[in-house]
Write a structure and sequence with these properties.
Length: 432
């Protein structure tokens, strides 16, 4: 379990803390959900007065015998790993209905969507907040000078700043992991922890999520193939073929479907959905998601590559078609992690754009509630040319003022605006 959310005894403040403070102050029940190890429990414990841990066998047995005991104690009452006793969700919902208007009554944390969902969604009673691994800003890698929320205003704020963070630093951060409990670990200790995390997913979490794994080696190979597809829109058939390379018989989609479903319910797969604009600006857009794992360090470990292998562009893992290097794909994964966290803080959605024939792509689209967007390209480069911004220019030609801003995220040192207004921002300088 990677629940320790500290470095040298100090809590790492998260971007999501501001969101939680606002929600807990005004709403009766808030659920924090995300993969194991992202820091949900540590963050919730800072707000809870009463704690019920359902991953503790003794507490779970008591809760099964008398579920209503989970509602007892001074508020906020935290029900940790609520999905282990699914009826706890409905208990909280009913408690909110019985005593409305009492903010900060309940906190729930969950590391998996249960196989049997609660009888009621909790809409209007329980608000769900997604939590992801640490971003570069939360890790203290660089000091952000460019705010995504500022870019979303459409006022084209000044873009400036300088960082000493370079390509080698980003490669190290890809493999170092954003799980708070792993920060500070290096070498064999870090690799052992990541291997243990992946082993637990295969050997224990799948079964707890309701799916028995008959061939663990096959599942792990499929996960490695998915890791190789990071930052691509490869079909699940292509991923399956990569996972079974050299084998005459290929498993059916029905055989691999449970892998996908369960890994999504465990929050291990964190695909970026395709952008389907609400206004009729664009046609013939492609709908497949862009594949990402919850933490690029898991992808690197599944493929057996460290920072040096990434920098030397050694082939990693399984044969799967991609444009560019694995380092470029995992750098995009790292940047995507941060942008999704920052977009959530700004109440915006994150997606990607790809035309049906694949001739135009924009790595990330951050969309406000009114449908206006910030378009972001991620480049494994220190300098940017006109060729690098051609898709952003194309998008501006298509949607005009609905493009609030356009950004290229790089591995360079300086943040600035080009003459055409496109912002160039080193990854370490982009923050919430």
């Amino acid at each position: 379990m990677l629940l320790k959310h500290q470095v040298d005894g100090a809590y790492i403040r998260r971007v999501v803390d501001d969101e939680l403070e606002e929600l807990v102050a005004g709403l009766p029940a808030v659920a924090i959900e995300g993969a194991k190890g992202v820091g949900k429990t540590a963050t919730a414990l800072r707000r809870a007065a009463t704690v019920h841990r359902l991953d503790d066998p003794a507490e779970w047995n008591i809760a099964v015998a008398d579920p209503r005991r989970l509602l007892l104690g001074p508020p906020p009452v935290l029900i940790d790993e609520w999905q282990r006793l699914v009826e706890s969700w409905d208990l909280v919902r009913r408690a909110v209905d019985e005593q409305p208007g009492r903010p900060g009554s309940f906190l729930l944390t969950g590391s998996a969507a249960p196989l049997e969902m609660p009888t009621h969604s909790g809409a209007g009673r329980i608000v769900t907040v997604r939590m992801r691994p640490l971003t570069l800003a939360e890790r203290g890698v660089g000091k952000p000078t460019v705010s995504l929320q500022g870019l979303l205003t459409g006022k084209r704020p000044p873009v400036e700043g300088n960082t000493a963070v370079g390509l080698e630093d980003y490669a190290r951060e890809i493999v170092a992991s954003g799980f708070p409990g792993l920060r500070g670990l290096t070498g064999r200790m870090l690799r052992a922890q990541l291997d243990g995390y992946l082993e637990r997913v295969v050997e224990r979490d799948f079964e707890e999520a309701g799916h028995r794994v008959r061939r663990p080696a096959t599942l792990r190979r499929w996960m490695a193939a998915y890791a190789a597809a990071s930052s691509t829109t490869s079909s699940y058939e292509a991923i399956r073929d990569a996972a079974t390379s050299g084998r005459a018989e290929k498993p059916s989609r029905g055989a691999t479907g449970p892998y996908i479903d369960t890994l999504e319910r465990l929050w291990i797969l964190d695909a970026v959905p395709a952008w389907l604009p609400t206004r009729n600006h664009l046609r013939r857009l492609s709908a497949p998601p862009k594949h990402q794992l919850v933490d690029p360090a898991l992808a690197a470990r599944l493929l057996g590559v460290g920072a040096e292998a990434l920098l030397e562009a050694r082939p990693g893992g399984l044969p799967l078609q991609r444009d560019g290097t694995l380092l470029g794909a995992l750098f995009e994964s790292l940047v995507t992690l941060g942008i999704r966290v920052y977009a959530q803080a700004a109440e915006a959605r994150t997606s990607h754009l790809r035309t049906a024939a694949g001739e135009r792509e924009v790595d990330l689209i951050v969309e406000r509630a009114d449908g206006r967007v910030v378009a972001i390209e991620v480049k494994l480069a220190r300098t940017i040319s006109d060729t690098d911004v051609r898709h952003l220019r194309w998008l501006h030609d298509r949607i005009g003022d609905d493009l609030l801003d356009a950004v290229i995220v790089t591995t360079g040192q300086d943040a600035y605006r080009r003459r055409d207004g496109i912002a160039v921002v080193p990854a370490a300088l982009l923050g919430p």
